[in-house]
User: Which sequence fits this backbone?
DNA sequence: GATGAATGAGAATTCATTCAT
DNA sequence: AATGAATGAATTCTCATTCAT
């Protein structure tokens, strides 16, 4: 009746790959049709490019279908490489999956850490954070990764651990610092908030889930929501 | 050439079934009509029992492995029935999955609607709600279902729709009413909260996710967290 | 793409059965609702009726799908009995199949033997035979049986043997006698025809096949064809 | 939890393949391009060879058991390939079946069209045709195909259509032309025979059926039979 | 290094047959 | 005797993984 997870794509996959180079490198790719390698951007670079293409393709497929339902055949097609090539770079499906998630998580971590670096009041910092988050994570591929981890975390404890260690605990630590700073500055009244930085993050997480699951049918003004939430934390603002 | 007489009937089937049943069904060995063993109700009851056992087993397996990675063979084993029996009750794997989720969701819905029914201040109601939620959902099989939907929602849009329709929108509507009542009563100052009942729910959702993913390594005092969150919403309480 | 042999009938089956009684006995069946058997048309008769219903249903199914693709479930449904009942009358699927074909063959045999009994010239006899054959066999259920034997004969040698013994050799023997009579009477000139009675039968067999396979798209005037064939055997007729 | 390293490769695959291939493919070990063993053609050739082996094996199995009762496992074994390989060449069992029949039919068609090409009287042509037919079709694999179509035609209408279009209607058209030529030449007296070329073919068809079903127990001198039939059509010959 | 044809373990689904009611 | 729920062997089809080219 429903036939989910069966989408025989089979095409449109090679679109963004065409040998998997276009996305990342518009580098020195002048020409290379008939001959073998008229312009070889040295072996290592080529390999790295392929690897990146596989990771990118895998990310799309895994977020769309989950680990078990993803076919390496499709990943290969999307990456513009042969199936066997995947095994040149990754031990097996699981290794690809784990590495891919780890790789995708790094920018998320970076992002998390840099935003607050900018100055201003804590409220201002969090407001900027909220905007950045909604723009760059919720409803984007980045958000899909978060949802992917929620989905597969139980089956891949090491992944959940990694996520916890690298993203969650760091993010919460940073958030805690910020909260403490806000308390210090008198911006935040409730001192116990520092014990549960999750509270500050929670609506953002809900936004991610919402966009992924219900966004299509019931769009959510995530920025507005996060601002109301900040009002709760900092006390209502006079001027909007 | 012609295969005949193959079925090796063996009555060890009901042996391991108790394991599969006990977890969910509190039906237990209460009565017995026609006689024979301790618990052999009539045909229809037996069928219903088996069906329930399959659903219970399926729930365990699906929440543990996700849709694609669950083997009906395992579900059957856990339910103490033969593989074919599943197909007597459900058209295919997907039908089982969907029905199972829907079935599991109903008590959740009921729960959600009854708790606030009790009287008292809005703060008291929400506090009671938080306690109930933490006890009955977060970290329990119920929570697993929620996480299951988060995980498979994208692949089973009709499920996500169902969940949205039956649980999310109803729950949010109830929550909104409660918030409006709180605003009316002067308990809640920020009127815009009524626009985003998700904010009130958010930490609870995060608690569910947390317990499922990180609970083992980094336990979270969910009740305490939810109380701090209520403090943000209602203003700090003087006496705890 | 094609999906043959999958027709999930599932209904319309119980029509001609309604407990399998109506067909044969309108006997003393006054009433028999609540009690066990207020008016038992004796056990044996009931059993025979059921058996007949199963055979009739089996014939339909087997001719439509072939042996392997026929489901006993469908046979039971069409016969208006439970699946298990089939096993009360037949050892297994194969036994049902074989007996059913044998049963169905008997009238064919009878038919074959009686027609020529009538008097007249050999030409007249064969013309009558042709008409009867086209009307009662080609394009009817009887013809389906013949085609069924052609189809499954290789897999059921005992069936092919039975068919050969009971139908083919008898039929050919009868036909040979007729030919010899025709030669004697001077109606048939080619004496060697008696060595190959198959020749006389051949166009009739082709008609059976044709109707079953191509009849829908390319109808064949079988009677006309058979008459032309008789013209070859007897020499052209003056008056048509 | 994760299954890894399961494929127990064993190179005994090609061992029993010879058996499966030799029967049908007269391709044999003729040449060898790149070297290595006795018969290792290039990729494409290997693929074509495998495909041919599958078709040959399928033909044997399908004619022996019919569509439904044939196991792809057996086809694979007979072809000397792995089960999965079949799916590299054919979408599913049905696709294999249909293509196989079509493929097998082509030579039949060719045959049909070339034989009459030779000159001589119509009687001579048909006599030659009869001999060729008996030798190359009746009682051979070719004949099995015809019987296979008779058997499965009802369940695969598109096959029956194909057979009708490509073999039957062409064959009949050719036969009709021949008959008309015979009438023109005065060899055939009954002009209406041109309306039913089936009559000329009929004994040949019966011969095919006969050899397949009863040939073992009751051999039939098909050539003699067809000659007697020709005597009917052309009038008896003086000298045999 | 790349490729993709080939492999075969594995999982879903079907259906003849049995047997408790 | 009749029923039809339950069983599990058998079969199709998929896809991760390997390896000859």
Assistant:
């Amino acid at each position: 009746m429903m036939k989910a997870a069966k989408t025989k794509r089979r095409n449109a996959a090679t679109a963004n790959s065409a040998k998997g180079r276009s996305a990342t490198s518009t580098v020195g790719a002048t020409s290379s049709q008939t001959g073998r390698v008229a312009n070889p951007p040295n072996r290592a670079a080529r390999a790295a490019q392929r690897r990146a293409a596989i990771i990118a393709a895998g990310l799309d497929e895994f977020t769309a279908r989950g680990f078990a339902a993803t076919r390496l055949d499709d990943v290969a097609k999307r990456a513009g490489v042969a199936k066997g090539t995947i095994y040149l770079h990754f031990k097996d499906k699981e290794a690809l999956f784990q590495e891919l998630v780890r790789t995708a998580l790094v920018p998320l971590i970076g992002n998390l850490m840099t935003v607050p670096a900018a100055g201003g009041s804590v409220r201002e910092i969090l407001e900027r954070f909220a905007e950045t988050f909604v723009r760059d994570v919720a409803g984007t591929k980045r958000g899909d990764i978060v949802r992917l981890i929620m989905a597969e975390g139980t089956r891949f404890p090491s992944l959940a651990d990694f996520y916890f260690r690298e993203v969650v605990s760091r993010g919460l630590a940073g958030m805690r610092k910020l909260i403490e700073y806000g308390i210090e500055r008198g911006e935040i009244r409730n001192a116990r908030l520092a014990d549960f930085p999750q509270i500050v993050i929670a609506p953002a997480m809900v936004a991610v889930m919402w966009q992924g699951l219900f966004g299509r049918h019931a769009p959510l003004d995530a920025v507005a929501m996060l601002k109301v939430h900040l009002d709760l934390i900092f006390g209502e603002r006079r001027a909007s």
